[in-house]
């Protein structure tokens, strides 16, 4: 399928998935049921998003155990591809994967399927979640994962969609590159926590949206206080003026948003920062 990067109104659904257990098959079956539920709703989404690592609990110990190769026979790929085709929707699913060639590195990857069930894009989390806030949270994804090395987007019949995963949202450069590549919407499957969630989850999405005057969405797992990692939840869609269009609470839910290109046009016309950038003053900030 070849698409122009035309921007047309569409409907987006974020599945804030709960009931994640130790059984990958059960998690996949539940995720599938939730995709079917979202697709059958009266909101009729064109694009459905699942959270980061939706097929497993989140944590170091789990990454290698639940990882799969990105190939048609893999359990998660099969489910995602089949349900995208069955529901005739675009689908973004975040999970852990092995690289199939060039070593056995593990990546935190999200894969994208078109309504024919074809795998059309993938994004490997570029910035690994390595933080240490004493007394609050220490996490080092780099102990088990390798960072991706590319920016990624995909074209649909309604928009160009840029991809990031969770911690990637903290890096304005990645979002700005996607914006300059013509993306209208940025999607980040993510799983912030009880320390950084209240501090930065909304702030970062609104910041990336207003920096780049586009739509930003983050899709989290539901909070499970019996799990090792307590996700913040609050899956959210933000418009190009940095208004929050929709926000989940912390429990399992599906939230829907109408993505209206007119909001992007009026934001860009009213505050034309995209035309006012002074690349003569800051040609390449990475060199500073
Ligand atoms: N889990 C992440 O990758 C990121 C996160 O929780 C944060 O940036 O905060």
From TrEMBL:
Q: Which GO terms describe its molecular function?
A: omega-amidase activity
Q: Which residues form the CN hydrolase domain?
A: 10-261
Q: Which SUPFAM superfamilies match?
A: Carbon-nitrogen hydrolase
Keyword check for ATP-binding: no
Q: Which UniProt keywords apply?
A: Hydrolase
Q: Name one Pfam family in it.
A: CN_hydrolase
GO BP terms:
asparagine metabolic process; glutamine metabolic process; oxaloacetate metabolic process
UniProt cross-references to CDD domains, sorted A to Z: nit (cd07572)
Q: Does the keyword Heme apply?
A: no
Q: Which domain of life is it from?
A: Eukaryota
Protein name per the record: Carbon-nitrogen hydrolase
The organism named in the record is Mycena belliarum
């Amino acid at each position: 399928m070849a698409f122009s990067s035309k921007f047309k109104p569409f409907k987006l659904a974020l599945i804030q998935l709960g009931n994640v257990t130790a059984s990958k098959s059960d998690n996949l079956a539940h995720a599938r049921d939730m995709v079917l539920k979202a697709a059958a709703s009266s909101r009729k989404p064109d694009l459905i998003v699942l959270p980061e690592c939706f097929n497993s609990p989140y944590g170091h110990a789990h990454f290698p155990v639940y990882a799969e190769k990105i190939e048609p026979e893999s359990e998660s790929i099969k489910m995602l591809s089949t349900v995208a085709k069955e529901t005739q929707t675009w689908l973004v699913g975040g999970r852990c994967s092995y690289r199939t060639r060039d070593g056995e590195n593990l990546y935190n990857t999200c894969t994208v399927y078109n309504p024919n069930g074809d795998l059309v894009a993938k994004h490997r989390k570029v910035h690994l979640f390595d933080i240490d806030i004493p007394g609050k949270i220490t996490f080092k994804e780099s102990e088990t994962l390798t960072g991706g090395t590319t920016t990624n987007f995909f074209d649909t019949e309604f928009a160009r969609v840029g991809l990031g995963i969770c911690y990637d949202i903290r890096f304005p450069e990645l979002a700005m590159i996607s914006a300059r590549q013509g993306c209208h919407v940025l999607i980040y499957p993510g799983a912030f926590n009880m320390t950084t969630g209240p501090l930065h989850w909304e702030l970062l999405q609104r910041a990336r949206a207003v920096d780049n005057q586009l739509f930003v969405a983050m899709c989290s797992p539901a909070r499970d206080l019996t799990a090792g990692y307590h996700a913040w939840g609050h899956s959210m869609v933000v418009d190009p003026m940095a208004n929050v269009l929709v926000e989940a609470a912390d429990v399992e839910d599906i939230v829907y948003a109408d993505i209206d290109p007119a909001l992007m046009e009026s934001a860009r016309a009213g505050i034309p920062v995209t035309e006012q950038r002074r690349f003569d003053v800051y040609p390449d900030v990475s060199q500073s």
